[in-house]
């Protein structure tokens, strides 16, 4: 909301038609001595919540305008604008009004009514809730000369509300709201006369001295009900206490949800980082395992090649040994064959020697026989 513009408190006049008030009345009654109720009853069930809506939604702004708390809000409370007998002839009870620059309590007591000849400060804005055609709220009749009975009400005639607010009290702003028809009329006091204000492009009625606008807002009921509401001069709705509480609760819920969402996101991010770290570690483990597997594969290949080389060498050695064994066997066989041949040759020689000896013996025997046949003794030869 924009900074609140300074509010000029209008000065009241102590002179009204037919009545001249003393500047410092000494013996006129105050709010504790005047009636604060009559036999009238609330015209409809919308008036009470409507007054609460107007009050609770504008109070934060009024507290900024009046840091010292000097302001007064009346809701269906009497404004005694002149002293009469009976007092009810000189009182009006607007459905809602705001008075700047006066305390909300008098001598520590709640106000029972607003007595103009004591306060001398008129309301800045007054609002009437019209329940019928608005005739009563637009009545500009001046006070009657004497005591006249109103044939419609059977009561003493009074000055019309419009006349009282315009000519007697001189209230700067007067609004008439008809909640049944959904209409709003706002008047501004210009040159001692009320001039109806035209709605702006938002359909609101500006009160520039306070930086606010007055307008109608429909609720979500079926059928929708019109409510008189305040907006700032930027078109932002002034919220009621319940709406502010609901807004605060909604903001708290959104903040809590946002916090929970942020915590969830943070948790998810932590989990994602943890998963990323684990994935990285897993990838490093897999890479390490792959490197180890490749190293083992290389070592296995080298071992296989070494084994194959050893096998080839063993095979070659085996082949060499086998070849050597074959050669040795062949040599052995050759030697054995040679030995057999030598043995056979020796046996042949021995046989030949035996045969030669046998032949020699036989020859000797033949020779001896022959010699003996010759009569020669062979032993003596």
UniProtKB/TrEMBL annotation:
Residues 9-20 have a biased composition (Polar residues). InterPro entries: Uma2 (IPR008538). It comes from the Bacteria. Residues 50-215 form the Putative restriction endonuclease domain. Residues 270-283, 291-306 have a biased composition (Basic and acidic residues). This is Putative restriction endonuclease domain-containing protein. Residues 1-25, 134-153, 270-326 are annotated as: Disordered. It comes from Cylindrospermopsis raciborskii CS-505.
């Amino acid at each position: 909301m924009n900074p609140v513009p300074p509010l000029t408190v209008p000065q009241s006049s102590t002179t009204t038609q037919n009545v001249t008030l003393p500047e410092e009345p000494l013996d006129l009654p105050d709010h504790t001595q005047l009636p604060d109720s009559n036999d009238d009853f609330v015209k409809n069930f919308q008036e009470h919540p409507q007054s609460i809506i107007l009050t609770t939604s504008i109070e934060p702004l009024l507290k900024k305008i009046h840091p010292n708390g000097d302001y007064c809000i009346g809701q269906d409370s009497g404004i005694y604008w002149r002293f009469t007998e009976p007092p009810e002839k000189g009182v009006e009870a607007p459905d809602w009004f705001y008075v700047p620059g006066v305390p909300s309590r008098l001598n520590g007591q709640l106000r029972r009514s607003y007595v103009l000849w004591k306060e001398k400060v008129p309301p800045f804005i007054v609002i009437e809730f019209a329940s019928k055609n608005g005739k009563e709220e637009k009545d500009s009749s001046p006070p009657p000369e004497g005591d006249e009975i109103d044939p419609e009400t059977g009561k003493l005639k009074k000055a019309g509300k419009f006349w009282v607010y315009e000519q007697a009290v001189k209230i700067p702003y007067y609004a008439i709201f008809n909640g049944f028809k959904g209409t709003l009329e706002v008047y501004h006091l210009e040159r001692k006369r009320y001039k109806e204000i035209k709605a702006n492009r938002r359909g609101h009625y500006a009160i520039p001295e306070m930086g606010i606008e007055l307008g109608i807002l429909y609720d979500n009921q079926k059928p929708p009900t019109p409510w008189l509401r305040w907006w700032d001069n930027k078109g932002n709705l002034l919220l009621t206490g319940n709406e502010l509480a609901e807004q605060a609760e909604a903001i708290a819920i959104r903040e809590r949800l946002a916090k929970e969402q942020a915590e969830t996101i943070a948790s998810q991010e932590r989990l994602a980082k943890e998963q990323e770290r684990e994935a990285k570690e897993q990838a490093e483990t897999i890479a390490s395992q792959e490197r180890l597997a490749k190293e083992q594969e290389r070592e296995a290949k080298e071992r296989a090649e070494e084994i194959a080389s050893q096998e080839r060498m063993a095979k070659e050695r085996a082949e060499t040994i086998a070849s050597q064994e074959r050669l040795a066997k062949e040599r052995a066989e050759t030697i054995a064959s040679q030995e057999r041949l030598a043995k056979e040759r020796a046996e042949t020689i021995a046989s030949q020697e035996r045969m030669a000896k046998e032949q020699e013996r036989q020859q000797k025997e033949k020779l001896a026989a022959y010699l003996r046949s010759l009569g020669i003794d062979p032993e003596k030869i």
